[in-house]
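re: that chain from earlier
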Amino acid sequence: MEKARYVAVEGPIGVGKTTLATALAERTGGRLVLEVVEENPFLAGFYQDRKKHAFQTQLFFLLSRFQQQQELFQQDLFSQVTVSDYLFAKDRIFASLTLDPNELALYERVWQVMGPRVVKPDLVVYLQARPEVLQARIRKRGRDFERHLDGDYLDALSRAYGDFFFHYDETPLLVVNTSDLDLGDEADLESLLTQIRRHRKGRLHYNPEGHKA
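^ sequence. v structure.
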């Protein structure tokens, strides 16, 4: 991978974003930027009652992600590779799913102020997986606040991600089907990293036949 490259890894809950971002940063000697999830005080309540806690949860995420991005890029972004386990623009995916029309209208007004001020990546890696694979991975990692995450919400989220990236054209995009990939397996991981290093422009789909999840 070229020096001075900013890569964002994206995908629905449980797909393996942090695992891949961490491995990519380690292999490139780059800076790793992780989304702060556990610090959101509304998240546990959101998974128990999405309607009641949706707006507070979403606004907290939007503001904390924006602050993190601003602090990050006040530094010298181009002195080293930077790898993030989220794309700032994805915040709108969750907002569109969880907020009622009035809340969404207010959210969009805030977004319009913040969105244009965030640096875009040089490459986005969008990870996909079948819903049952996502559910298995979520159960395996055992986060307490995700215990109430239901299958219908996860299915809707996966579809929303698919629609978002179907229309996405702001940066080069690598779409990866991870359903049969084991990112903990050295061969599977190296195969994917090779694709990431090679991709420079446009949209590319990578559908490997790796180890069954």
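The domain at 6-206 is CATH 3.40.50.300 (Rossmann fold).
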